[in-house]
Structures are given as structure tokens and as C-alpha cells.
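Reviewers of the previous submission asked for a worked example of the structure-prediction workflow described in the proposal, so we include one complete record here. The input consisted solely of the amino acid sequence. No template or homolog information was supplied to the procedure at any stage.
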Amino acid sequence: MGKLQGKVALITGGGSGIGQSIAKRYTEEGAKVVITGRRVEALKGTVDLCPAGTCLPFAGDVMKPEDCEAMIKATVEFGGKIDVLVNNAGIDSPAGAVADMPIDGFRRILETNLFGSFYTMHFAIPYFIKQGGGSIVNVASLAALRCPPAMPAYIASKHGIVGLSQSAANDYGKFNIRVNVICPGATATAMLENSMASVAEARGTDIKGALDFMTRYMPLRRAASPDEIGGAAVFFASDDSSYITGAVLPIEGGACVVDPAGPALADLGQAWGGEKA
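From that input alone, the workflow returned the following C-alpha cells.
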């Protein structure tokens, strides 16, 4: 018996990366899942990784409320109910500070990352209330807890997910609906690797070399694999977390404990007080 035996879940952005890993882990733990995204072929690739009959692809765009409502209905039709909603769909943000960011670009990031999570929650919560409970797992980012430079739209969207999640946790806890947030740090997905291309070029190295450079001051000194994020998503969907709601879990290799002054000194071969590192 798996930790999610008999549960039914909807996972947005399930065609690749973290969403794909969550879908695979959920089905291995006994759940039936519906995965959504805009790229049908990518969704089929996830289905092929899951046990037969456990994973249904559903093409849809989280920027469209009508698609989000259809995703929820498709999940209920597939599994007879919906126990878990995982909001993983999201897009990265082009670099640019507030005054440089195109207005349409800012709106697109917010509508995908934040509004999409709101839409699916809006349509799923009435089902959860009727069923007597449910679990929502929202995938944010380390950018929900820290502020990388020149990423205002992405940062605003991920901070917003934390606020939205905790507001819903507060409002719907009386219905046995739990809402928790996962905040992955550097994770070796296609989206991160694409964003590392310019770093690799500037350093005269490959993507692995760029990731090694970017993570060199983190305690674990590496990026996560998508599978390492999936375990937390299983925990928040399972009864093991039955008394946890409104939580925000960083999964970032210890990046949150790093003082930015420390790496600056380390580059000089120094420690605090002027001593050699």
C-alpha cells in the first residue's frame, strides 16, 4: 500500500520537470492523477512513465479560467473525486528590473504563475468542501523567500503564491482543506538549464559547469533533481501531513542559510575578521 493509495490528484504543468516527477511519484504511491499542460506530446511522455491506467493527460492552459474548471471536472470524472490539487504550472521571467520590464510580459507571468493557481483553487475548493476535505500543494520557488536581481514579475508571482496559499489555509481549514507551499531552489529542469545558457557562455563552459558555478556557495553545492522535489509533494498530499497547513517548505540545498557577505569574502580567500578562509 502506497502513501497515496486511493487518492485522486490533479497536477498542472505535468508534462516535464518537477510536475512530471510529482506525477510519477504519486502514481507509484497508489494515486490516480490527471496531468495538464499546453504541450500534448510532453503530457504523453509523462503518461508513459506511470503505471498503466493511472495517469490521464488533459490539454489545457492555466491562464484560462474555463480550462481550469474543465481540468477539475476531468479529474473528478477520471477518479470519481478529487483529493489533491498540485499547482505546478509556471513560466520563467525574462531579466529586467521594474522600469525595464514590458507591461505585457509582467502581466503574462502573473497570469500564469499566480492567477493560474487561483483559478484551479477557485474551482477545486467547492469539491473539497462537499467531500469533507482535501489537500492543495502549491509549487512556488526560492524566489518566494528571496529576491534575485532583475526578476520582478517572477518574484511577485511566487511571493503571491505564498500569500494566496496561507489565506486559503486560514479560510478553509474548518472544512479540513489543507494548503501548503513547496519552494524549490535550483532544480535541474529544462527551464533552469535554458536560463543557464548565458551563464555557460559567459564562463566558457557547459550547462553542468554553469550550475556548478551558480551553486558553489550553497551548503550542498549542487542543484536538485526534480525527483528530490517530488518527495515533499507526496508528503503534503498524504495523511502523514494531516495536521500541517499554511506551511512553506524550502527545498533549496541550504541556500536560505547562506549570508551573501560570506561568498564575497570567500572570493577574496578571507573569513570574518580578516583571517584566511
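The CA atoms of residues 212 and 222 lie 6 Å apart. We consider this example representative of the routine output the project will generate in years two and three.
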